[in-house]
Amino acid sequence: MKFHDLMDIPYNQDTGCIDKIYLESKLTKTPEDVLQQLYHEHGRNFDFQSQYKEIDISEITWELQELQAEELLRISYYHEFSPWFEGVLKRPESFKTRGWDCIDTRQEIREFWSQYNTWLTSPIVFDNSVYSIGLKYHLVEGHTRVALLKGLIQNGVLSKETKHKVWIGTAKIQ
């Protein structure tokens, strides 16, 4: 199944979200978190379709790994998301006066960052065996989270040695 095949799956007309039960039946080895964040919520998204339409998603293996922040700072992401990424990156500039309130309006997000110095939900990345634009990893979903991490490091709130969990998609070896 290729990413563009997601456009043929039944979806909710109001939300645009793809039927999760159908996804689970077709992508049985895909973790729930990846199904939810990537395929269910963003499978019909134009930007995602334009980038990933030819990727065979049934041939991706997923692993939750812990990466050092320094490595996550070198990750590529879709150029069209740059304005959003750069805006979020600036949020921690007010950390000294606002504390964790500067990163998000949602209390559960602020509390998790405050307690664990990381994100509540792990972002999704492809390694260069799935999607290669010259770097080891490409950010697929989680631009806000990774931009926050980068901003928190730039503003001295977190160290680049901190570790953070991410879902890494790798092409299955043929």
Brief summary of the model shown:
The protein has 174 residues and is α+β, with helices and mostly antiparallel strands.
Kindly describe this structure.
The protein has 174 residues and is α+β, with helices and mostly antiparallel strands. It has two domains: 3-60, no CATH class; 65-171, no CATH class. Helix content is 37%, strand content 16%. It is built from eight helices and four strands, in the order αααβααααββαβ. It has helices at 20-26, 32-42, 46-52, 69-72, 82-90, 95-98, 107-116, 143-154; strands at 60-68, 124-127, 137-141, 163-171. Strands 1-4-2-3 form a four-stranded mixed sheet. Helix 5 (82-90) packs across helix 8 (143-154). The longest helix is centred in the last third of the chain and has 12 residues, at 143-154. The model has no long low-confidence stretch (mean pLDDT 96).
- Number-wise, the strands total 4
Helix content estimate: 25-40%
Q: Give the N-to-C terminal Cα separation.
A: 16 Å
Strand order of the largest sheet: 1-4-2-3
Counting structural domains, the number is: 2
Question: What's the helix and strand layout?
Answer:
Blueprint: H1 20-26, H2 32-42, H3 46-52, E1 60-68, H4 69-72, H5 82-90, H6 95-98, H7 107-116, E2 124-127, E3 137-141, H8 143-154, E4 163-171
Parallel strand pairs: 2-4
Antiparallel strand pairs: 1-4, 2-3
